[in-house]
Structure formats: structure tokens, C-alpha cells
């Protein structure tokens, strides 16, 4: 008989991990403060961004960042009142942008993407959910040759790691893939193998339903304490639960739980904003990314979702939905004919480490605890691969890739 395992977190990483552990014969219970797919797993763009191997902290990023950070409605925003609190994270972000850390980060991200792509396709096939995948590619759009040339090293980097792409240098070539774009977009990069989900919330709910049908347990419970090396879980309602092994996949709240075990992990929130529009808003043929403006337009269900950007503002500040409005206004300019009425606004918390890599591995101070969090905007993309790695760790089997870049104690030293 397998071990009793508690997974904290019912987002896409937590539910995928619970399913993977269940498939290995373990008795799994999932605890979440809000329920299944109640946070970032519900409102994201539904993109399986396996081509996105570059970290946010790139060499030279600090030359651009001040301009972005000083614009409260720009693609990267930091409210001044939050600056003192996030300063240590920003220093580590700066260090991660140095060439040595950047190169290591790209290699680690690419390795995890390679594993995650196959794991995700295997999961969809194994659960009979292939019909939820949209194979419609992705366009990254540039306004003029200067923007395009500045992006070429990034495309070459993707290609060196096996990403298939095409470069387009005319509005006509772009229109063959996505008609109806504003004429300012003269160049693009196209990834034909890009995949989107029909709806990320529906995906997680489907996985959760299969997990429960196979004997898994999901409970709404807020974890307030960990004891006995993580094998005793204390909840806000006064209840206690014991387990042989604990897995922490609690998204943007994970570092609070890790601190209960003596681990200080620099986790911040990339707060993302979007607006979901009803059916008929625009005839979108492919996932469209505007990299110099920090947002995307994508299909969600029968409608569209316009969203993105990064607001570094923690968990407690009220949402600034003017950011959603700005993105929608830009989208209407870039996609003439876009119907912007009837939309629903949303803000979510992406859990992010300064080097853009997740924390995957054993808790340094608790041998019966495994961490799996901090994926930033790539939680959905890397969920199945992370689940496979966690299951191997719980089973004490060799992992399919070197976990050193993702270890929890990598932040103990600055240099």
C-alpha cells in the first residue's frame, strides 16, 4: 500500500501532482483554502508556453526596468509603497540577470519545458482530455524592423533549444495567419507548435473530477500550521490531519508555509490582469502576443481573454483594474474591430522567484516534505512535468532531470 500524502494547493500544479501520486498507488488528500482552481489557475491565458525558455531577468533588463516601473500602468509596475518590502527580491532579480545566472537559468528552464511538454501531452491522452487542446500556434508581433531585429537573438536562442519557429517580415505574411491586425505590425515570429487549452479552469476541474472519481479527496481547508516535520497539518477550523508525506503547491502563499518549516524562500507575486470577452468579440485564429506591450489575446472557451502585464505588489494591495482597462484599450487599437463590451475583469497572483525558476525538491529542514511552487506565469505549462518530478521524489526514484537549479536552498547565497 502506498503512503498517505497531503497536497496543499488545488491549483493546476497541486491537482496534477495529486493525480500523479495517486497513479503511483498513494492515498492522496488535497487541501486548499478556496477550492479547486480558485486562484491563478482559473484566470490565466490557457497557454502552454513551452517555447518561453527565457527568464524575466535578462541581461540588460535594468536598463529598461526603471522606465517600466515608473509607469503605474506599464507592462511592469511596482507601486512605490511596496518598494521597501520587495527590495530584497529585486536585488536577487538583478543578480539573476547577470550573464552567468541567465545562462544557467535558460538551460534549466529549457530542460523543464522539454520534460513538461511530453508529460502534458501524455496526461491529456491518459485522461482522455485531448479535446481540450487547441493546436493553433502563436504570433509574437513587432512594430517595425528595429523591434524585430532586437528580438532575433531570443528567437535564435529558442531555436538552439529545439523550438520550431518561422520569422515573418511583412504584414501580408502575418495576415495569412491572423487577418485584421493593425498595419503597424510589420514583422512577427510564429511558433506553429504552440498549444492552448480550451479553458484552464475547465482543465483543472476535469483533472480534479478524475482524481476524486478514483478515490482521491479534496477538502476546502486553510492550513495555519505545520508540525512534526510537516507530517501534522493544522487547519483554521481547529482540525488536524496527519500524513506520511506533505507536498506544498500553494502558489503565491507557499512561502508562508515554507517558513513554518524554517525555510525563507524569496517568493513574490507577479499580479496579472485580464478581461474575458464574450463570443463574437473578434475572429481570432491564433494566440497573439504583443511582447513590447506585455500582453496577449487568446481564445478562452467560446470567447476571448485579453491580459498579461506584471504588477509587483504582493498579496494584500487592492487590485488596480485600470490595468485591465488599459490592456483592453490597447487590444482594441491593435485589433481594429475588436468588440470590447460585456467583458469580465480579473486579477490573479502568479507566484514568482527572482530567477524565474520554480522551487521543486525536498524541503531542506523537513525530509517528509516536498516543495513544488514558484512557477511564475508558467504554472500551467510546467504543471504535468512538475507533478512527475514530485511523484519521483516521494517515491525516492531518480528524477528525469537534474533538480539542482530548482532546489529550495539555492537562495542562501547571493553571489
Automatic annotation (TrEMBL):
UniProt feature coiled coil, ranges: none
User: What is the protein's name according to its record?
Assistant: D-amino acid dehydrogenase small subunit
Q: Which GO terms describe its cellular component?
A: cytoplasm
| EC class (word) | oxidoreductase
Q: What is the lineage of its organism?
A: Bacteria, Pseudomonadati, Pseudomonadota, Alphaproteobacteria, Rhodobacterales
| Enzyme Commission (EC) number | 1.4.99.6
One function term, GO molecular function aspect? oxidoreductase activity
Organism in which the protein naturally occurs: Thalassovita autumnalis
* Pfam short name (any one): DAO
Task: Spell out the InterPro entries in the cross-references.
Answer: FAD-dep_OxRdtase, FAD/NAD-bd_sf
What sequence ranges are listed for the domain FAD dependent oxidoreductase? Answer: 5-393
Q: Does the keyword Oxidoreductase apply?
A: yes
What does UniProt give as the signal peptide span?
none
Report keywords, A-Z.
Answer: Oxidoreductase
